[in-house]
Amino acid sequence: MAIYLQILSNGLMLGALYACLAVGFSLVWGVLNVINMLHGSFIILGGYLTFFAWHLYGIHPVAMLPVVAALMFALGFALQKLVINRVVSAPVLTTLTLTFGLDMILYNAMTYWFTATPRRITLDLGAVQLGSIVLPVDRLVGTGLALAMTLLLYAVMRGSSIGRAIVAVRMDRSAAELMGIRTDRIYAITFGIGALMAGVAGVVFATVFPITTNVTGIWLGKAFVVCVVGGLGSVPGALVGGLVLGLVESFAGHWFGPQQAITAGFVLMLVLLLTRPTGLVGVRGYE
Amino acid sequence: MKSGFPLYAALVAGLLVLATTPLYADNYVVRTAAIVAMYGALATSWNFIGGFTGYPSFSTAAFFGLGAYVGAICQRHGIPMGLAWAIATVVVAAFAALLGGIILRLRGHYFAIGSIAVVELCRLVVSSWSTLTGGGDGLNLPLMSWPPEELMRFFLFVMLAILLASLIATILVDRSRLGFGLRCIHQNEDAAAMVGINTTVYKIAAYTLSAMFCATAGAAYASWTGYIDPTDSFQIVMTVKVVVMALLGGAGTILGPALGAAAFVLLEELFWANFLDWNRAILGVVIVLLIFFLPGGLLSLRALRRLRAAKIGGRE
């Protein structure tokens, strides 16, 4: 029984990280109808910024969070405004290929400048014991940060006028335009938020997982799965999708071996794609 | 535009240029010609589902990798090379037909994601099924004890044969009811179903065609290199590369994908040779430029328009 509680808590902590990782990707897909192949590299870029700030200047990752968030937002906003907006209504083949091309450029630049050596920030915060469950503190802090940022995004989407405008564009682009919303600008802001959340995930990941360009594809794959599981373009969807994936991976890893954890995630995604393409909490007609 | 003559002339000329490389060029050029032929076959195959039907399929690498593995496993069990390739083709075609029946129900972005997931899933299954596939260690194939020149020439002709077969299949499909139906699906799937096209069967046929030649090429490639492993056989990068080649030449045309493959491979060789550290980024720039400045592909250039015997009806 104790072992299952441990797996459950590991799964939930992992799930919160996955939710934070995928929520930006989900928002971009839902609002812009663009599959952003850059997302994995955005995460790693955020991780690198955090790592080098800590390694070279001794800046604590938590202090880096707002800096990375601002930088990534600016990068995402500029990319969308200058490049992707020009083909944003083209078929998926065009937009996906374009973001993949951009990803090749970013990936190559990062591999060239930072090399592919895995790097990680070790904070050595020890662990807390809760009954029979052991929780490493750095992971707990990471989970807390990830959850806090995801909930903050939820509040922004619900409460601010920008957030309401994004939701409006997502529901009906032409109607939103008729209401005086500048969709091009909303697209750029949304893509900026997507990059920002990827960067935030990168900050958290730098303290939990090794940062290297080799894993961009893995994180991108997780974002796919979380989006399909939870449903597109909503914060609660990403949260549910992330937690489900975290739990599935933890239990599958326990029962079938760690190698099968990722396989289980993809199988789950394919099954859900075919049975419930709107995701677990999605609304039909919103995809 | 009704006359197919420029098309056939260009096709024959292109194949002749590739086939005669052993007569006047060194082994490096012959190898590049074989790679051009191989990617030409892959891009031409993708064209069935991506170009004609307009489904954004990203599963090429899955078919290529599975073909390589089925071929390699057969050869390791003593089945002669040619027969192993044939078995790989048939097995993967059957797999694609089954898979198509499932994932072709998805459309647009969901289909794209689903088809990418297929590549990842194949890689994961192959790397964890180590009793059959050798897992992450990969598989060695029986080595062919031929002189290098002869070996290279042999595989050049094999790849050319696969390319030719895929092109002939394209021409046949283009002129048949199937091609017409696929183009209808591209324009408007619901309307196509309404006027009596069995869209499910047509899409599965296109998907299967897009898998077959990839499997043959994969199996031949495995015999050529003598060693395969999961990471190299199932690469998302390869899948996207093939799509970019087809777009570069002109998706939905007969010769476009093969032409795009040739242009892409030559560019890639150039970048590899001169900008080793930055070749991936340069390819990324090529993709970005392609999307912005040449969305219709090379065959939309005025000089090459006459080769455009077939074109998809309405671009979205």
UniProtKB/TrEMBL annotation, chain A:
- For the keyword Cell membrane, the answer is yes
Indicate whether Transmembrane helix appears among the record's keywords. Answer: yes
Entry GO terms, CC: plasma membrane
Q: What is its main location?
A: membrane
Where does it reside? Cell membrane
Q: Where is the signal peptide?
A: none
What family is it from? Answer: Belongs to the binding-protein-dependent transport system permease family. LivHM subfamily.
Q: What is this protein called?
A: Branched-chain amino acid transport system permease protein
- This protein's species is Ancylobacter rudongensis
TrEMBL record, chain B:
Which segment of the chain is annotated as a signal peptide? none
Which compartment or compartments is the protein found in?
Cell membrane
One GO CC term, this protein: plasma membrane
Q: Which GO terms describe its molecular function?
A: branched-chain amino acid transmembrane transporter activity
- What Pfam families does this protein map onto? BPD_transp_2 (PF02653)
Q: Which residues cross the membrane?
A: 85-104, 152-173, 242-266, 278-301
Q: Which residues form a coiled coil?
A: none
Please report the record's description of how this protein sits within the membrane. Multi-pass membrane protein
Chief place where the protein resides: membrane
Q: Which InterPro entries match?
A: ABC_transp_permease (IPR001851), LivM-like (IPR043428)
> Is Cell membrane included in the keywords of this UniProt record?
yes
State the UniProt keywords alphabetically: Cell membrane, Membrane, Transmembrane, Transmembrane helix
The name on file for this protein is Branched-chain amino acid transport system permease protein
**Can you name the source organism?**
Ancylobacter rudongensis
**In the record, what lineage is assigned to the organism producing the protein?**
Bacteria, Pseudomonadati, Pseudomonadota, Alphaproteobacteria, Hyphomicrobiales
